[in-house]
Amino acid sequence: MDLDMLNMFVIAGGTLAIPILAFVASFLLWPSALIRIYYWYWRRALGMQVRYATYDDYQFCYSYRGRPGYRPSILMLHGFSAHKDMWLSIVKFLPKNLHLVCVDMPGHEGTTRSDLDDYSISGQAKRIHQFVECIKLNRKPFHLVGTSMGGNVAGVYAAQYPEDICSLTLICPAGLPSTTDSKFIKQLRELQESKRIDRIPLIPSTPEEMADMLKLCSYVRFKVPQQILQGLVDVRIPHNEFYRKLFLEIVDEKSRHSLHENMSKIKAPTQVICPGCFWGQCFGRRHPRLPRVHPGELRPLGGGGAAPQDSQPHPGVPGTAAQHRQQQEAGLSVAGSHVPMPG
């Protein structure tokens, strides 16, 4: 073999080996760094850009795609201890010509965290309103989406600032009284009685606890490698003290049933997607505080947790502004079922 040809193969092999070795080293030694790179890659691949907005001395971090147009913008609020990037697996299915905004909730990821802040559901709704005004998202009514804790905040926001909202989607929302106790609710009651706040199921501190939390929150069952579980824990551990404080705030009497208490004030057409979530408050046939709704079936999806990216899809869930307008004409849509609203 020609020497030049051999050198070319050696150089090519070395060039390929370096990223492979870097990946293996990251996977084994720094799995949390690999997770951050994963989110960075998907943001770029999906065209999501990260920006910051400031209200007085308070900073919001958010990602967005597209620009405001004749279709309503969409603001997405994540759940407890998550961040804006949790929506990436949903964003990839949405039309690229929609204006999407995913914000880090108060105290999460790149948004300001302050011991003096009000982390009750009502307090978070006020902060989100400040963010909306910062980026002038409410120049025209927008579609608001929230999941779990973010669903609770989204519902309260829609009740408190009805002029901002053209339509609302709540995915496994917290903030409603449960008709039956789920396994998760029973665990919470046991923790309250024992006062063991260090064992909250949604605040893992070991790979094993992380695996249990993923089972609790996800419909799809999948095997997660131990190193990835460790990486997920490593990312969260520096924030666990804040998560405990936040969790106690949102399950306190002031916030526990915030959505329920504000439902009668929600005027916007509302879609509720409830895939048998761990909050345990499946709507049955009709939630009594849904405003001006004729009796009709509110159907939960086929099963799930509280993570929308891991829930079973449903063909009736709208994904475009045109479908949202159809919802407005039809009234309230819940998991693909349409319930007409009288005048």
TrEMBL record:
* Domain of life where this protein originates: Eukaryota
Query: What would you give as a GO molecular function for this chain, any one?
Result: monoacylglycerol lipase activity
Q: A single GO CC term, please?
A: late endosome membrane
Localization, per the record, is: Late endosome membrane; Lysosome membrane; Mitochondrion membrane
Segments for region (Disordered): 293-343
Query: Catalysed reaction(s)?
Result: Hydrolyzes glycerol monoesters of long-chain fatty acids; 1-dodecanoylglycerol + H2O = dodecanoate + glycerol + H(+)
Biological role stated in the UniProt entry: Lipase that preferentially hydrolysis medium-chain saturated monoacylglycerols including 2-arachidonoylglycerol. Through 2-arachidonoylglycerol degradation may regulate endocannabinoid signaling pathways. Also has a lysophosphatidyl lipase activity with a preference for lysophosphatidylglycerol among other lysophospholipids. Also able to degrade bis(monoacylglycero)phosphate (BMP) and constitutes the major enzyme for BMP catabolism.
> Which PANTHER family does this UniProt record tie to the protein?
MONOACYLGLYCEROL LIPASE, MONOACYLGLYCEROL LIPASE ABHD6
The protein here is known as acylglycerol lipase
Organism expressing this protein natively: Geospiza fortis (Medium ground-finch)
